[in-house]
Specification:
Layout lengths: L13 H26 L7 H10 L2 H20 L15 H7 L4 H18 L1
Helix pairs in contact: 1-3, 1-4, 1-5, 4-5
Length: 123
């Protein structure tokens, strides 16, 4: 069954729903990462520069920077660049779903449905 990603409501299995949610979740995580990127001071590319940058951040900014790294890794994974800690064949990790909850009520409801289906399949 081919799922129209514009309407993930019609997905019947956890795998079909995950496939339909891939782009909406990626969009949500990408938007969150962009917001954090704009809120933080520019991040240098060099290792030395990044260390100095990190040391200048306050505790809240360090938390936001760590979240930004996590969101960037998850976005990369969803785009086909496997992130450390996730199986390369895992299309949509639960962590990505959890990070996308709470920013769009309809998407959050679909994510809850997908997670419930996955939990039911695992038991």
């Amino acid at each position: 069954m081919v799922i129209d990603t514009a309407d993930p409501q019609v997905a019947t299995s956890a795998d079909e729903l995950a496939e339909a949610l891939l782009m909406p979740v990626w969009n949500t995580l990408s938007e969150r990462a962009d917001q954090l990127r704009r809120a933080l001071p520019p991040r240098p590319e060099s290792v030395d520069g990044r260390y100095r940058w990190w040391r200048l951040l306050d505790a809240e900014q360090q938390r936001q920077a760590a979240l930004l790294d996590r969101l960037d890794a998850l976005c990369g994974h969803l785009a086909g660049r496997p992130a450390l800690g996730y199986a390369p064949h895992e299309l949509l990790p639960d962590d990505a779903l959890h990070e996308a909850v709470g920013f769009n009520p309809q998407l959050s409801a679909l994510i809850a449905r997908c997670l419930a289906q996955r939990a039911g399949r695992a038991s």
